[in-house]
Every structure is written in C-alpha cells, then in structure tokens.
Amino acid sequence: MLLVDSIDEPHRSVAGDYGDLYSALFRGAGADVTLFDARADALPAFGVCDGWMIGGSRQSVGDDLPWLDRLEGWVRDALAARVPLVGICFGHQLIAHCAGGSVARAPSGWSIGAVEYRIADGVFDAPPVGQSYHLVASHRDQVLVAPADAVVFASSEHCPVAGYTIGDHVSCVQGHPEFPASVAASLYRSRIGIIDAEQVAAAIETLDRPTDNLAVARWLVDRVAGIARRSAA
C-alpha cells in the first residue's frame, strides 16, 4: 500500500489513519499488507510485493509536489512493466492520468455520501458484486476521460468513470472501500463551508445504507492474487 495522505485530527481518532483503515480492510479480504509512505520513503522496487495499491489523498494529480512527481514516474514505469496496480479515489485518478486519461474537477462538484455505482452490461461474465455496489464517496476531482486502453466497468449518477480496468493488471475504483460511515460523517461535517451545508446533511443521511466495502476489496485482492498465481505457475 502506497500511502499518499494522512487523516487529520479529530477524524483520525474515529477509526485510525489511512494505514489502519487500508490494513484492516484488505487483511480482511485475504491480503498481507505492507505500508509504504510515498510522500517520504524511497519508492519500492516492484518485485517486493505481488501488487501495489495507491489510495486516497487531498491532493490533485496536477499538484506541483516533488513526491508526487516521483510517484507519477513510478506509476508510469509500473504501467509499462504491467505491474499489478490497484487505485482507490486519488489512486484511481493518478493511474488514469499516467495511462493517458484526463482528470479534472467534476462538472457536478463534490460527490459525497454512500453512492450507488452501476456495473456496465457485458463487461464481466459474472459481475463481482452484482449489478451495482455501494461505496462511500468523497471527491470533487474525477476521471473525465478514461485511458484509451481502459475498460470502464462502473459509473454513478455524477461520475461516468467510477471504475475501470486495464488488461488484467490495473483495477481502479473511485469510491472509498476503506471508509466506515463514522469517518465519512466526521470528514463531511468539517467541510461545511467548502461544501454546502444542505449537501453535507443529505450525504450524511445516506450513510446508514449498507456498503459493499469487503466485497469490493475481495475483488481487488483476487485480481492481484490471480496475476501472482499465473506468474508462479
């Protein structure tokens, strides 16, 4: 897991930092998780792990930051080498950007709340989580144009490119499978003023819906594990 942000207090006290959230989720999905801080640590060699996840961040992919420039180069090299990559929210956007897609502010503004993502017909022989799935959303940037070689498998009312794959080695989702409702609610309330208070209130009302965090995490892990099994065969 390449960490690209930290959760500020008081929100971190609710359920931990990003490393805690990702570790708990993906270990529950059957993965052994190793954490690397992409902002400060030397970026690891690809072969250290079977696959790599890049998670959420308050940054935008176009921000001028030395660590982000290094990470972008690492992702481009990983794509060229067909290294297994998983992108979540910011990671989903960064991988799309590096693969030739377009990322910018969403025309509809912030997307927050427990969002339904619809799975496109004909993409999967057997959809991994049914015909749709729910995840917590928290973003105002999004992928506007998918990379040319991507297959878009999920969309929402306000996010046409909410999930995509590239070959068998890239799997990305815009939603946050690591976020429990309590963390999302805390973050949303802190953004009143940046986000309209009525939109925040409406988003918090959706957080009592069941989300498909573990099912999505298992699908992402299975994609990486499948590549590892084929490579070992």
Report on this structure.
The chain is an alpha/beta fold. It has one domain (2-232): 3-Layer(aba) Sandwich (Rossmann fold). 34% of the residues lie in helices and 24% in strands. It is built from 7 helices and 11 strands. It has helices spanning 12-15, 18-28, 66-80, 90-98, 181-190, 197-206, 213-232; strands at 2-3, 36-37, 52-54, 85-88, 102-105, 111-119, 128-139, 141-145, 150-155, 163-166, 170-173. It has a 7-stranded mixed beta sheet with strand order 3-4-11-10-9-6-7, sandwiched between helices. β3 (52-54), α3 (66-80) and β4 form a beta-alpha-beta unit. α5 (181-190) packs antiparallel against α6 (197-206). The longest helix has 20 residues, at 213-232. It is globular. The model has no long low-confidence stretch (mean pLDDT 95).
